[in-house]
């Protein structure tokens, strides 16, 4: 298990520390094959340092080893359609190109914070692809899927997960989407 992506933090198997997981995250982990669940590590962090750049600086975790999970919403025929996107922290999701087309909506945007928090039952700054609402597409950048491990949220701001990229790509409703990530940022 490669949890070194967490920098100087000490990780343990995620299910050993349910206090560091949002309820839907813990539940989703219990539904995984036990061997896969054991590959997910969790580390406790200062909740004030949950934002990616702050986290990476404080804990010596490489920015290119972190992935962000963003909730996107779009409307079609009066119905709101949601998706979650997982991209490396050094990139951005192509919300109004690839994601908009995948949701089949005229315009897509980041879901309002209160809405994303309520629907996912996760804390803002800790939303993660593990344990998302049933029926939401989970769009994963190929760079995330190919990573030996990425740091993602644990559903709460006080924890971070280290997860093999292939495991993220195998989550329910996950789909690896070419060109999902764009505009590489400076690390």
TrEMBL record:
Pfam families on file: tRNA_edit
Coiled coil: none
Domain YbaK/aminoacyl-tRNA synthetase-associated, chain residue ranges per copy: 47-163
One function term, GO molecular function aspect: aminoacyl-tRNA deacylase activity
Protein name in the entry: YbaK/aminoacyl-tRNA synthetase-associated domain-containing protein
Native source organism of the sequence: Pseudonocardia asaccharolytica DSM 44247 = NBRC 16224
């Amino acid at each position: 298990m490669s949890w070194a992506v967490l920098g100087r933090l000490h990780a343990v198997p995620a299910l050993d520390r349910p206090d560091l997981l949002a309820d839907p995250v813990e539940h989703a982990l219990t539904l995984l094959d036990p061997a896969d669940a054991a590959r997910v590590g969790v580390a406790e962090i200062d909740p004030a340092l949950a934002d990616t750049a702050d986290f990476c600086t404080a804990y010596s975790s490489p920015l290119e080893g972190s992935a962000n999970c963003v909730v996107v919403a779009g409307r079609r025929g009066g119905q709101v359609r949601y998706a979650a996107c997982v991209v490396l922290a050094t990139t951005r999701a192509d919300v109004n190109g690839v994601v908009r087309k995948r949701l089949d909506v005229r315009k897509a945007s980041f879901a309002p914070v209160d809405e994303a928090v309520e629907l996912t039952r996760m804390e803002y700054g800790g939303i993660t692809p593990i344990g998302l609402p049933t029926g939401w597409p989970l769009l994963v950048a190929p760079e995330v899927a190919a990573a030996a491990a990425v740091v993602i949220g644990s559903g709460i701001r006080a924890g971070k997960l280290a997860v093999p990229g292939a495991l993220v790509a195998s989550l329910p409703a996950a789909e690896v989407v070419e060109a999902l990530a764009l505009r590489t940022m400076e690390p």
